Amino acid sequence: MKRYPEYKDSHIAWLGKIPSHWEIIRLKYTGSFRHGLTYSPADLSDNKGVLVLRSSNIQSNKLDFNDCVYVKNVSQDLMLKNGDIIICASNGNANLVGKCAYIDNNIVASFGSFMWRYRTNLLDKFAYYLLQVCIPPYKSLFTTSTINQLTAKTIGKIYIPLPPLSEQDKIARYLDYKVSRINKLISLRKKQLIDLAELKKVIINNSVTKGLNPNAELKQSGVDILGEIPAHWEISRIKRICKGIITGTTPPGVKEEFFSANGLAWYTPGDLGENLYINKAKKYLSTEGAKFVKVIPKNSVLMVGIGTIGKICVSDIECSTNQQINAIICDDNIINFKYLAFYLRAIKDYILYTAKSTTLPIINQSETKQIIIPLPPLSEQNQIAAYLDGICGKIDRLITLYEREISLFDELKARLISDCVTGQLDLRDIII
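^ thats the sequence. predicted structure below, dont judge the formating
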């Protein structure tokens, strides 16, 4: 793709050089900005009312209707029309301030008080792509220690490049075409990720409740969540197959001298992810800090017992945890620790459902010990664990590959939009 023949300095740090015939203008002069509707719980209606678009309705700079609020009455001047752009103006997360969505398809909706409606004098689709590029460089102006706000004053300080109307049209149509193709690839990969996660879930569930022999004779387990299990399997509880359960601890005062760049890994729920095995922590305890915690042996099954219940991993190393995590110390003569971890992952929804709930879901040591588990012979557990290790490893590698591809597609899309709306690509001769 060729560049313009001549460029000039924009004198805007984030923008650099722009085509010599383009102009520079403040964003506030390109249209009108208006804050949205303020409403109370009494104003809410069912889905027959007027849809009020909020920050949660903007995902990846597109409209998303998975979290909708409706109100009874909205004045006409707060209704959206085709060509409007809504912008997140206020959010606790500074990274979400400035995200935007384009209004089309004759949607009947208003917008919330933490949103801006931008009704532009520019070509509306060009303005939509331009906003995605021109607002982020001014993030420092709306990032605060409390609430992050894109105010009218900040908008007044934002400079944008302004091409002639004919080029705005070319850029918008070119990006519509290219971005839609990239979005289709992203959507395909996201669907495949959902399918892979479901496949993995089914494989694990079937393996830890039915075994690997499809011809095995089955019997009723007497447990609703298990249904039928192989006839030669037993039913047990965690307390009978483990040497003990350790609930983690936190060094008193969480003093700086208790932590070091390396030492004893100290896991918190944020360290436990999708991978079954874990051997890296965000924090490590110094020799002094390790004096205040319980050391958990290698190959223990870690399960979050407070808050984000259902996160389950196996520690590849000797470690410690905070008090939100219970560590199950397996009896190697009875249970394969990998089999146990796979099984707990299979029933994590049930574990969460049965957890005590006050302000946070909680499952303590006593309740953990009572969790029912189907128990094949140890040799069969070993086979199941090895099989799941292999098949889940392949699925996980494919998931990682697809996630990386999605990230690269997003980067490609962002770079393409930026290059087009800042004049780094000359699209005047492009036929679309």
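Residues 165-210 form the longest helix (46 residues).
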